[in-house]
Design brief:
heterotrimer, A mainly alpha, B mainly alpha, C mainly alpha, A: mainly alpha, Four Helix Bundle (Hemerythrin (Met), subunit A), about 85% helix, about 0% strand, C: mainly alpha, Cytochrome C Oxidase, Chain A, 17 helices, about 65% helix, Cyt_c_oxidase-like_su3 (chain A), Cyt_c_oxidase_su3-like_sf (chain A), transmembrane (chain A)
Chain lengths: ~210, ~100, ~525
């Protein structure tokens, strides 16, 4: 019985439905970060000078490199979606691998950036930060929380794309059922989308 | 329950062009914020970020080739976020 | 008993269907929407009874001034737990998770929801969240005492078990989001052929509105609770004034979710009422489109009224006027619905059965709750009534009176479909009368206490409040007695009641065309819809 049910579910596969479902999930992610952007907006409004000065501590170069890196990975992921439809498995795998490699680069950069901040005593709860004043405390609290949550999303995306790569490699994900790859791509672009806003808010508006 | 395996395959070239535009916009935003434009700095940075996110949504996230429903929903969500921020600032802006 | 019949026919009900697993595993690993709905029902009823007991303990404490049965610390913990359990574990999932899961696919002519596995996952996530939240009770440090709102600065200053409660609420939010995603995709993709948007029954419509709020509001409280976790674990200053944070911002973020959450609770309740009333009036619903549009209007406008919980917190004047105005605005679509229900009953030949009694009393208590809400939504009266027993009476009339009565109505209405058996309607009516009298006796005095100035969340009061408090506590006993009658009657009906026919009430929506109880995939053949859901005459 359960086999026939599984079969009938398979026949009723609904790619459009899966896509809408993924988008709805992306909406929840957008709202999740929107909550943080509201907090950022309010505290920036209340502490304009402190936020301005604190932001100058962050390296624009590292931020820019990471932005370009992430944009590149997003483009690769989008190309993977096209490649699988062209039934070009080699190209799909290449694009997925590039995406993963770049994501890893992003995390390495992030690690060194965070480490630098910790080294200078700029982390939540540190004595040095408290001495700098309330605005700086808020700025770095938000900086670590928001980039940390973003990094967590990168890691989740990394795992997701790894699963997709494995399935493409053993031919269980092909041009006939590319929806998992597309949805992983949507998630990855969401991560990119959030970074596009994080970058100017923390690194540029100084 | 038709399965849209949309026939449209976006060529690599399109993604290449979009990526190039995104990188250029990033560099522009970095350059612009190094100049002191006073209150306009924030505005320009956010504006450029909005354009970039629009490109990501429309091309990378494939909205250009999706049906109207999805386009409408995505726009509605961004409008909602903007409205929530606006209403929150009705408090902070007038305290 | 029924096995004998079902084996000779091809119609095997979903309750007897043999799946891959046996015993309890056939339920807790089932992806059948009907079994998941019942799993939710059993869990929710259990938590509800715990919440009721805590509430009864509070009322008992308030029967006399001073210490009666517990000390102030215990009272703080009990009202917090009562709130957390009732809000996050009972009423927020409430109708959508139980009746939405069970009836949404059937009412739109589908075999299951769009993502059955995700649906099962949402139940598991719910249970995990519940266990985490309730573990706060048993760990060192004692149960949380901040109130269910976890307001800053209490939530990061208290030494009680804040983290489990907050993380539990966060996990429960995930479950709510997954259900919401599932329902929206189901309604968009799985409606039977011919079921246009305006042939969709009203209960699915309200579930649709609810699902959008679940998706778009829950993440905000999710991130807010995560910030509390960050604040407690890593000393990140988000809301601590000592670190530059603003406690009022916490209130904003919390209510951006928690006010729409009230509509997550009440919209499906309104939907259930919209199903019950036309069936028992034997008449098509009055103003179908007006109800649909008002549902969507409530969902949308309800998103922007959160500030009316913070009128005395120190917001700007502009914000006060805006939120008060929007609060009055959101009352309009609710009132439209009440007019539609009353309009449906006008000149109808009404069947006086228990589900109808619940629906009719819903109208009564919902009106009281809604109108007292306007007294609170007006700026001047709010200053006087803020944080008094009046507020407690108001939201119990909405959340318990509104949602609870609708839930009771729904379970009495759909009972024969779910269990394939019938309860004793006479006993059910008696239980309803007792519950209704107890309910009003319990909460009406609190309006007067509030106007008189009795604050909420106090375990003690001055002598002048003694009389109404005694009446209120006695009301709680009557209500619980009614509740016991209702529960015993339903349990007995589910086990031993007479077999129910396909359509005992004469309903017109699709669920009355399938077997009682439905088969595993509901329909032999997906029906083609050629009519409106309520074409009585």
């Amino acid at each position: 019985m359960s086999q026939t049910i599984a079969l009938s579910h398979d026949i009723h596969r609904d790619d459009e439905g899966s896509k809408i479902g993924m988008w709805l999930f992306i909406f929840t992610e957008l709202l999740l970060f929107a909550g943080l952007f509201i907090v950022y907006g309010v505290y920036r409004y209340l502490n304009p000078v402190a936020f301005h000065l604190a932001a100058e501590e962050l390296s624009v170069t590292v931020g820019t490199v990471n932005t370009i890196i992430l944009l590149g990975s997003s483009a690769c992921m989008a190309m993977a979606s096209s490649a699988i439809r062209m039934r070009n498995k080699g190209m799909t795998m290449l694009m997925l691998a590039t995406t993963l490699f770049i994501a890893f680069m992003f995390l390495v950069n992030k690690y060194f950036e965070w480490e630098g901040k910790f080294h200078h005593g700029l982390f939540p709860g540190s004595e040095d930060l408290l001495k700098l004043g309330q605005g700086d405390t808020l700025f770095y609290g938000l900086y670590f929380f928001m980039t940390g949550l973003h990094a967590l999303h990168i890691i989740v995306g990394f795992i997701l794309i790894t699963i997709v790569s494995v399935r493409v490699n053993n031919n269980t994900l092909t041009a006939d059922n590319p929806v998992l790859l597309d949805n992983a791509g949507l998630y990855w672009h969401l991560v990119d989308l959030i970074w596009i806003f994080l970058f100017p808010l923390f690194y540029l508006i100084a | 329950m038709e399965n849209h395996n949309e026939p449209h395959i976006v060529p690599f070239k399109t993604y290449g062009i979009i990526l190039a535009v995104l990188v250029v916009l990033t560099l522009i935003s970095v350059a612009v914020t190094q100049i002191d434009l006073a209150s306009l700095t924030v505005f320009t940075a956010i504006l450029l970020a909005t354009i970039k996110s629009g490109l990501v949504l429309v091309y990378f996230m494939h909205l250009k080739f999706d049906n109207k429903l999805l386009k409408a929903l995505v726009s509605a969500v961004f409008i909602l976020i903007a409205l929530v921020m606006f209403v929150t600032f009705l408090d902070y802006n007038y305290r | 008993m029924s096995n004998h019949i079902s084996e000779t026919t091809t119609h095997v009900s979903f309750r007897e269907e043999k799946g891959r697993y046996k015993g309890i595993f056939a339920w807790i690993f089932s992806t059948d929407h009907k079994r998941i709905g019942l799993l939710y029902l059993y869990a929710i009823v259990t938590f509800f009874l715990v919440g009721v007991s805590l509430g009864a303990a509070m009322k008992l404490e308030l029967i006399a001034p001073g210490k009666t049965i517990m000390n102030p610390e215990a009272y703080n913990a009990i009202f917090t737990l009562h709130g957390v359990i009732m809000i996050f574990l009972v009423v927020v999932p409430g109708l959508p998770a139980v009746f939405g899961n069970f009836f949404l696919p059937i009412m739109i002519g589908a075999k299951d929801v769009a993502f059955p596995k995700l649906n099962l996952l949402s139940w598991w996530v719910y249970m995990v969240g519940a266990v985490i939240a309730l573990s706060a009770l048993f760990m060192g440090g004692g149960p949380p005492d901040t109130g269910w709102t976890f307001y800053a600065p209490y939530s990061f200053k208290t030494n009680t078990n804040m983290l489990p409660a907050v993380i539990g609420a966060f996990v429960l939010g995930f479950s709510s989001i997954l259900t919401g995603i599932n329902f929206i995709v189901t309604i968009h993709r799985l409606r039977a052929p011919g079921m246009t948007w305006f042939r969709l029954p009203l209960f699915p419509w309200t579930l649709y509105g609810t699902a959008w709020i679940q998706i778009l509001a829950t993440p905000i409280v999710g991130i807010t609770l995560l910030m509390i976790v960050g604040e407690r674990l890593f000393h990140i200053g988000f809301f601590d004034p000592a670190l530059g944070g603003d406690p009022i911002l916490y209130q904003h973020l919390f209510w951006i979710y928690s006010h729409p959450a009230v509509y997550i609770m009440i919209l499906p309740a309104m939907g259930a009422i919209s199903e019950i009333i036309p069936t028992f009036a034997n008449k098509s619903i009055f103003g179908y489109k007006a109800i649909v549009i008002s549902t969507l209007a409530i969902a949308f406008v309800g998103y922007f009224v959160w500030g009316h919980h913070m009128f005395t917190s120190g917001m700007s004047g502009t914000a006060l006027y805006t939120f008060s105005f929007l609060t009055f605005l959101v009352a309009i679509p609710s009132a439209i619905k009440v007019f539609n229900w009353v309009g449906t009953l006008h000149k109808a030949s009404i069947q006086l059965e228990p589900p109808f009694f619940w629906a009719a009393s819903f109208l009564f208590v919902f009106m009281i709750g809604g109108l007292s809400g306007l007294a609170l939504g007006a700026l001047a009266t709010n200053v006087h009534l803020h944080d008094t027993a009046f507020v407690v009476a108001h939201f119990h009339f909405i959340v318990f009176g509104g949602v609870g009565f609708a839930f009771m109505g729904a379970i009495h209405y759909w009972f024969p479909k779910i269990w394939g058996r019938m309860y004793n309607t006479k006993v059910a009516t008696r239980g309803w009368i007792m519950f209704f009298i107890g309910f009003t006796t319990l909460y009406l005095p609190m309006f007067f206490l509030g106007i008189d100035g009795m604050p909420r969340r106090y375990y003690d009061y001055v002598d002048r409040f003694h009389g109404p408090n005694i009446i209120s506590t006695i009301g709680s006993w009557v209500m619980i007695a009614g509740l016991i009658i209702i529960l015993v009657n339903l349990i007995r009906g589910a086990k031993k009641g007479p077999k129910a026919t396909k359509n005992p009430w004469g309903g017109k929506t699709l669920e009355w065309e399938v077997d009682s109880p439905p088969t595993l995939e509901n329909f032999e053949e997906i029906p083609v819809i050629k009519r409106s859901p309520y074409d009585y005459r």
